[in-house]
Amino acid sequence: MPRKSLSGNSAESLRFRGTLAANLRRIATSKSLSMPDVADLAGMKRERIYSIVSAIAGTQAIELAVLAKVLEVSMDELVKGGVE
Q1: Could you tell me which CATH class the domain 13-75 is placed in?
Q2: I need a surface site. Which of 12, 22, 43, 73 has the fewest CB within 10 A?
Q3: Of 46, 37, 44, the residue nearest 63 (C-alpha)
């Protein structure tokens, strides 16, 4: 079965990016981290973080893993919102 890409502009991709963006902002805020703080901790360019939190760009699995690690959450919580 072919893999679905979440980097395009399909409705599924846009929902995924929107959920990721909202979760990233929510989690960072709950830890009193700014987006520049997150970028620095993750070793990513600030522009890259802003493109993610603006839901402009898709993300690679390695980026999700790094963000989850620096925010001390699971990847599931980052992309799905975790258990409330």
Answers
A1: mainly alpha
A2: 43
A3: 44
pLDDT digits over 16-49, tens only?
899 999 999 999 999 999 999 999 999 999 999 9
Q: What is the 3-state secondary structure (H, E, C) of the chain?
A: CCCCCCCCCCHHHHHHHHHHHHHHHHHHHHCCCCHHHHHHHHCCCHHHHHHHHCCCCCCCHHHHHHHHHHHCCCHHHHHHCCCC
Nearest to 59 by CA among 3, 1, 12, 13: 13
